[in-house]
Design a protein that fits this description.
Pfam families: GshA (PF08886). With 413 residues, the protein is α+β, with helices and mostly antiparallel strands. It contains 9 helices and 17 strands. The longest helix is centred in the middle third of the chain and has 22 residues.
Length: 413
Amino acid sequence: MQTLILPLLDDILASQADKVTAWFDARFAETPALPYASVDLRHSGVKIAPVDTNLFSAGFNNISRAARGRAAERFKTHLARVAPDGRRLLIVPENHTRNLHYLENVRVLAGIIEEAGWEVRLGSLMYDLDEAMVLETAAGADIRVEPLRREDGRIGTADGFVPDVVLMNNDMTAGAPSILVDLEQPVIPPLSLGWYRRRKSGHFSAYAQVADAFAEEFDVDPWLIQALWHQCGQINFREKAGLGCVARGVDKVLHLTREKYRQYGIESDPYVFVKADSGTYGMGVMTARSGEDILEMNKKTRHKMNVIKEGALNTEVIVQEGVPTVDLIEGESAEPVIYLVDGRAVGGFYRVNKGRGEYDSLNAMGAYFTQMCDEVEPRIEPAGNGGDAPCPFRVFGVLGSLAALAAAREQVI
């Protein structure tokens, strides 16, 4: 009974395009979209599902020039809703002064918002920054990052620039920056969605509701557009505390996945990813094929799983159904990454990782990025996409918009 998910969804989009658009419009009217997001997808041929949603996207430098133009138009719409009379915006980036590719992302993001008609400055959270700092990006361009000053509930740069909107491009793993708490100016995304507080389990709980509603409306098995998952807390990998919960979660997700595999005639063995319930950068991730894999974890793996970004302890995890990727770029395993602004897909790219296979996490050392086709710029169609459509971008975009809608709902669930 195997089905190919890309042709199935592409047919829905071709035959019911207006209905799909109206469905999203109605739901984003109820729950307005966040400013931006990037969504990692995994596509097995039979199913396609979001497996991570980042609300502080750090790869705008990897999307095409046409995608940047679409992003500018969507930012124009979003910012007009946030601050109708505003024209000045402050981006607060990560403190990654040595990550040149991240700095190029900041430069491109600033350029996109300038194209949307806003004056943009960059303000640093580094406590010891006393004067403006010029940094060179991976493209050899310069960006100017300035110290922040707060006065009477308003934030600005030390030289007197006072923004109408503050845009976070810092995931706040270590906590909400005190200098930005309770500002008069709108801060987007809100500080409460930083990784110090946000949880992947909360996101995927919201996503399950969104995906189930979409699947019911358009007569699709919801399993085909989402990954099964289970959450465990109170974990200490170093001391082996709480690993029994993780092992039981692994066996539970594997059992449910096997049932779906039997339904669809899939003969391969299922597996899971065990992931930190907060944070990005591919940290705190491992694979498992049985609960025993967790209970028998060696010291090196427990050490890797114990700490995530900025030295934060990994005390909560999700066990997520593994979706093997069939997408290949020049013979290497790849996965789509979709970029959204104001809830709508504007572009994307493929993450490729030499030396990693269809069952592995590709968000790891050795990853590189290559352009994705879209309706305007047909470039690369991955091998193994299982369909006759010349470009899967619009299908990927719908999955991304479902994840963006779920992200917006995280605040209200």
